[in-house]
Design brief:
512 residues; alpha/beta; Rossmann fold; 3 domains; 6-stranded parallel β-sheet; 21 helices; 18 strands
């Protein structure tokens, strides 16, 4: 047994059984060791950003880490954008990054870099194994750290000689700490403040958007208190049979208008909301003037337990009002995000998973599916587009029995279109919908909002994706996925019905 064997065995012993990989020379010992550990499923990704995003999707759906296999500093850097999103989603991930042999580092070979410094911004810990004997125990430590709470990415740097040298040491079982209980006095303080407030609101973060936590929040809503969730959450349970809270609006001025008159904001596994960007003469903090904020539960504490306790303290006995299944009529005519949302709501099966990287098309579909069959919604937590296809890959590997639907803008999909090849290769049950408006439409909106003025000829060249037009059907077909283009609501409704009834990869270009 060598260090690579010890690493993979330790990972598998602790339930880390999916590896999203884009390896190089320094990772060949790990690649070879995969043949000796049948519990680990290797998934080849043609770009590191696909591998890291897939690990994010896997972790969001299972609550346990997958591992990535990345090639030195440049490989990690290629995957950093989706690790930024994963950091904002608090997703447990083990990033195994190969490095030069310890004795080779001093020669500063062309691929040499400071991997630890590159990994630090998106990692809750960066560990480096110096010997083969350190690898297994270090893997156990990495898994425990990744769990949190809240969870996060741990980078485990594996020098080539630590991987190929012999060892007899395998890591042990990783202990998982649960969320902390309610801080002393927090429930009483919040209950008293809520009673005294004229217009209180509860704001929930990602950790409190599962079905059980939303049901606890629904008890508060049944008592007349408004519930909001963060604009972008790692995973939200939605649809029939679930409590449906409102979402914090994206644009700051709209969010503040929606919060007008609120004098108390109770934070549950989140922090004070801020605008996504700064704009001239507009506030950064999205808390109304004169509004008090109180933290009921931090991200390492149980929002579920805390909200249930507050409901008890307030004497609220009525259960949450759950969403009822309502199917929209068949859409007709123009193809737009609302008719697309109607088609998805009509045909999406029970317990589907939606990976949302739809940018400007996303909110109408989110609203249209509020009363659809029960499903999970995975949002773009960190704002780095290119997440949709990779997260869908990870969700499908994690939950092969569930239909996965990826919603992606065309600009976003071009960041990680290599993921289509992985979907085809692994025959994943993923339907990818790309909204082809052939522009960075959101940037056209933001250009005006930032006060930069109307785009002239030079500016328009940086917002336009239509010269040349991307042939999405040809691209997807060339990467191995059956694909079609829809330009009317009727065509899209028929394509969605077929895709949802057929197991396996599917691609739909929505020509907007």
């Amino acid at each position: 047994m060598n260090g690579a064997d010890a690493l993979i065995t330790t990972l598998a012993d602790n339930g880390v059984t999916a590896c999203f990989a884009n390896p190089g020379t320094s990772e060949m010992q790990f690649v070879s060791a995969l043949d000796r550990e049948p519990r680990m499923r290797p998934v080849l990704c043609l770009f590191e950003g696909v591998a890291t995003g897939a690990a994010d999707g896997y972790g969001r759906m299972t609550g346990t880490p997958a591992c990535t296999l990345l090639h030195l500093g440049p490989g990690y850097s290629n995957g950093a954008a989706n690790l930024h999103n994963a950091r904002r989603a608090f997703t447990p991930i083990i990033n195994v990054v190969g490095d030069h042999a310890t004795y080779h580092k001093e020669y500063d070979a062309p691929l040499n870099s400071d991997i630890a410094s590159l990994a630090a911004p998106n990692s809750i810990a960066v560990l480096t194994a110096r010997t083969a004997d350190e690898v297994g125990p270090m893997a156990t430590d990495a898994i425990m750290m990744s769990y949190g709470p809240p969870g996060g990415s741990v980078c485990l740097i594996l020098p080539a000689d630590a991987a190929w040298n012999e060892t007899t040491v395998v890591g042990g079982q990783a202990h998982r700490d649960g969320k902390s209980g309610i801080p002393p006095g927090a429930v009483e303080e919040v209950a008293e403040a809520v009673r005294a407030a004229k217009k209180p609101v509860f704001l929930l973060g990602s950790g409190s958007c599962d079905e059980a936590s939303l049901a606890a929040a629904g008890r508060l809503a049944a008592g007349g208190y408004r519930i909001l969730i963060d604009t972008f959450t790692s995973r939200q349970s939605r649809g029939a049979g679930r409590f449906a809270p409102d979402k914090m609006l994206y644009f700051g001025e709209m969010a503040l208008a929606d919060l007008e008159g609120v004098d108390l904001m109770v934070l549950v596994e989140t922090v004070e909301p801020v605008a996504f960007f700064a704009y001239p003469d507009r506030p950064s903090l999205l808390v109304p003037e004169g509004c008090r904020t109180l933290c009921l539960a931090g991200r390492n504490e149980s929002g579920l337990e805390a909200m249930a306790a507050v409901a008890d303290a307030l004497g609220l006995t009525a259960p949450a009002v759950m969403t009822q299944l309502e199917q929209p009529a068949a859409p007709a005519g123009r193809l737009d995000p609302y008719s697309i949302g109607a088609a998805i709501a009509r045909h999406m099966p029970d317990n589907a998973v939606i990976s949302d990287d739809a940018v400007t098309a996303g909110l109408p579909i989110y609203l249209s599916t509020k009363t659809a069959r029960p499903h999970e919604w995975l949002s773009l937590t960190g704002g780095a587009i290119g997440q949709g296809i990779p997260v869908a890959i990870g969700a499908a590997v994690a939950c092969p029995e569930r239909k996965v639907l990826c919603l992606s803008g065309d600009g976003a999909a071009m960041y990680t279109n290599q993921g289509l090849w992985t979907i085809a290769r692994e025959q994943l049950d993923v339907t990818v919908v790309v909204f082809a408006n052939h522009s960075y439409r959101i940037l056209g909106i933001e250009l005006g909002r930032t006060g930069a003025g109307n785009p002239g000829p030079a500016a328009k060249t940086l917002l336009d994706l239509g010269n040349p037009r991307i042939d999405w059907v040809s691209l997807a077909s060339g990467l191995g996925i059956p694909a079609e283009r829809c330009s009317t609501a009727e065509e899209f409704d028929a394509a969605m019905a077929k895709a949802m009834a057929t197991k396996g990869p599917c691609f739909i270009e929505a020509a907007l």
